[in-house]
């Protein structure tokens, strides 16, 4: 039970951190710098790969590249609202306005944060993707 509580706490910390970064982005303030533990090129490549997996509705591969929390929470059922929204948005066109940032949770765990606009035929989404230092997917948000 304590392990589940710790996972929930960590998930909430990550979510709160992402929301803070999103708010900072919306306000055009400078984002926290990406830690030197991360290669910006690899973060961007991997994030673009995650977006392609979402577009392909390949939840299994996303779970395989994720943390234990992602493996449990990123179910096909949890992704259904995203898939439905993407279907209504039309064909994928491009990724633009890419920003990379860093974040550290209360336990000292560092994360790379990728924020970009995913443009589709009829709609665009702000996509936020986080990775651990070993480049495991630790967060995925489409808004």
Key attributes of the depicted protein:
single chain; about 140 residues; alpha+beta; Nuclear Transport Factor 2, Chain: A; 4-stranded antiparallel sheet; 5 helices; globular
Quick overview of this protein structure:
The protein is an alpha+beta fold and 143 residues long. Helix content is 47%, strand content 27%.
How many β-strands, per DSSP? 4
Tell me, what is the CATH class?
Alpha Beta
Please identify the oligomeric state. Answer: single chain
Structural class: alpha+beta
Q: What fraction strand?
A: 25-35%
Give the distance, in angstroms, between the N- and C-terminal Cα atoms: 32 Å
Structure description:
This protein is α+β, with helices and mostly antiparallel strands and 143 residues long. The chain has a single domain (2-142), classed as Nuclear Transport Factor 2, Chain: A (Roll). Helix content is 47%, strand content 27%. A 4-stranded antiparallel beta sheet has the order 1-2-3-4, with helices on both faces. A hairpin with a 3-residue loop joins strand 2 and strand 3 (124-131). The longest helix is centred in the N-terminal third of the chain and has 25 residues, at 2-26. Mean pLDDT is 84; it is low at 19-28.
